[in-house]
Amino acid sequence: MENDGSLVSVTEIRKDELILIIAQFILAFGVMVFLHELGHFLAGKLFKVEIEEFGIGLPPRMIKLFTWGGTLFSLNWLPFGAFVKPKGEFENDASSGGFKSAKPWQQLLIFVSGPLMNLLTAFVIYIVCFLQIGYPDQTTVLIDRVEPSSPAESAGLRIGDQITKIGGQKVDAFSVVTDYVDRNLDKEITIEVNRNGVLMELSLTPDSSHAEDRGPMGIVITYPMEDYTIGEGIIIAASETMTMIRQYITGIGQLITGKVQMGIESIVGPVGMFSFYQDAAKMDEQIEVEQEQRKAERMEEGTTSQRRTASEAASPWLNRLSFFAIISIALGVTNLFPIPALDGGRILFLIPELIFRKKLPEKFEYYFNSIGMICLLILMAVIMFKDIFMLSNG
């Protein structure tokens, strides 16, 4: 049999899609770290701390981009991350314009601003998601799918029909439909639907011997989605952000107290995170496919709907945006933990100065951060090794 090249074409498309997803992941993750450092940068500028360099990516340096406001902006070779280098941050120098010349509470705000920028990023992502999707109107029931060769198809029900009455009962919830059908299996019932503003009454007989993957009528019902106002979107996004923060902190607390057992095999690095991102991208792709199918079905049936269903309201980027909202929250909260080399570790050394007006010995801080950094680097190496091993073994 002659090879027409179709298999090669499919393989190439898959490779192209994988490369695109990898590029999306690296870019989006880099943006999150960039925003974290931007928070530090803006707070430093606010308190008149000289920022010597703002690096996009991590060293070694690739090129110097430009100098603005006394700050060198550089592009570095490692694409994950960014960094801000305030003047005299690691020196015992309180000269004007240096980091140590800032008051302790100002230094505290500079450290906190990075994590807060990550939490703000998650908040903005949730606003976009909720304004895009809206909320379900649970008093209105729409037909989301009609199975082929089903009682519903034979009766003439179509996708987008609003069920207004069933057996003479007003329909204002899912349960009205499902309870009535369950009580009248194998009996003829009447259904009133609103199709494009026209009320129609149809008859059908729910089948008690239906297949397990379909209901007695052969339909899938859903609620239409209503739009949030901007104010409502902000409130619900703030609530969701706080909920995710609480859940993350609770999970860490359960891990520390031993309520949840978690070994190194459960900790993921960049490769593991990319695997989750790839799953999110696949779910988004499925949303897009289903939306195209739904559009084709509506065109084939000649029906339109003034109301969006949940599947139609979902954005093809919804799962990827939600993924990065969660990662932003994890990045922001984790950086506040009192761990050496993280913002929380730096804040820990400011507490005595804030409360007692007395600094801890410089050597103590130096050794504390050095030992902590070594431990973090070892942990990162182990995680990277595990990631590479996982990748090589599929």
From TrEMBL:
Q: Any signal peptide, and if so, which residues?
A: none
Bilayer disposition of the protein: Multi-pass membrane protein
UniProt GO MF annotations? metalloendopeptidase activity
- According to its UniProt record, where is this protein mainly located? membrane
The listed locations are: Membrane
Q: Which Gene3D superfamilies match?
A: 2.30.42.10
Membrane-spanning residues where? 20-44, 65-84, 104-129, 317-339, 366-385
Tell me, what is an example of a GO biological process annotation in this record? proteolysis
Query: Which protein family is named in the record?
Result: Belongs to the peptidase M50B family.
Q: What is this protein called?
A: Membrane-associated protease RseP, regulator of RpoE activity
Species assigned in the record: Flexilinea flocculi
Q: What is the lineage of its organism?
A: Bacteria, Bacillati, Chloroflexota, Anaerolineae, Anaerolineales
